[in-house]
Amino acid sequence: MPSLLTEAHRQQVQSLLDTCPLVPVIAINKPEHALPLGRALVAGGITILEITLRTPYGLDAIRELRAALPEAWVGAGTVTTIEQYREVDKAGAQFVITPGVTESLLEHATTARAPLLPGVATMSEMLMGYQRGFRHFKFFPAEVSGGVNALKAFAGPFPDVRFCPTGGIKKETAKDYLALDNVVAVGGSWLTPQDAIDAGDWDRVTAIAKESLALLKG
Ligand SMILES: O=C(O)C(=O)C[C@H](O)[C@H](O)COP(=O)(O)O
């Protein structure tokens, strides 16, 4: 009998996504970038930081930012195995995001400490998560999987599901997604341009965050 997600887990994900409509997808290529980058995003009004495991520095960055930025929610992205889930849980990640779903990742999430936002692109993947009690999903890769129109279609069979679309979204298009009732937040790497990070241009990172948040209101 598969385990089901608890209401407490569902609420944790909802409260997380309620804190900030934009989720920066962060890849740390140099360990010394983690703290100034985190600080720059927080200074720009971003309070959720998704540190991906795409680089070998992700895990240490999660530990560092958890300790240094108590005002932010620091979580892990690009988690693809249960071993990685365990590691980021131990490192103090406050949430876990996967690019896709497997039965074993969903099963693990029902007993893990950090709540999971599973990635889905199709109705069948959503159904896998839905049957386990998940009501929040990352929609990835959003733009190439149908974007805003796909999300409108998902609302038919899954009216109680909420999404964080990610993949191909830019500051100019984030608003179109957030206008949908079933979208609670939008993720993307546009908030952390690699050239700004390489140049240590933290003011630019803060400015992009502020501009992106302002565009949602305008
Ligand atoms: O690494 C992962 O776990 C992912 O799921 C991929 C990222 O979320 C996207 O690559 C971000 O998309 P862009 O904003 O188009 O760069």
Listed once per kind, the bound small molecules are: 2-keto 3 deoxy 6 phospho gluconate
So how many helices? 10
Question: Could you give the order of strands across the largest sheet?
Answer: 3-2-1-9
Shape: globular
- Rg on CA atoms, Å: 16 Å
Helix and strand composition category: alpha/beta
Number of domains: 1
CATH topology: TIM Barrel
Order of helical and strand elements: HEHEHEHEHEEHEHEHEHH
Uncertain stretches of 5 or more adjacent residues: none
State the main characteristics:
218 residues; alpha/beta; TIM Barrel; three-stranded parallel sheet; 10 helices; 15% strand; binds 2-keto 3 deoxy 6 phospho gluconate
Written account of the structure:
- With 218 residues, this protein is of the alpha/beta class.
- It has one domain (7-217): Alpha-Beta Barrel (TIM Barrel), CATH 3.20.20.70.
- 43% of the residues lie in helices and 15% in strands.
- The chain has helices spanning 7-19, 34-43, 58-68, 82-91, 103-109, 123-131, 147-154, 174-178, 194-198, 202-217, and strands spanning 22-26, 48-52, 73-77, 96-97, 116-117, 119-120, 136-139, 162-165, 186-188.
- The strands form 3 sheets. Strands 3-2-1-9 form a 4-stranded parallel beta sheet, sandwiched between helices. Strands 6-7-8 form a 3-stranded parallel beta sheet. A two-stranded parallel sheet has the order 4-5.
- Helix 5 links the parallel strand 4 and strand 5 (116-117).
- The longest helix is centred in the last third of the chain and has 16 residues, at 202-217.
- The N and C termini lie far apart (49 Å).
- The model has no long low-confidence stretch (mean pLDDT 97).
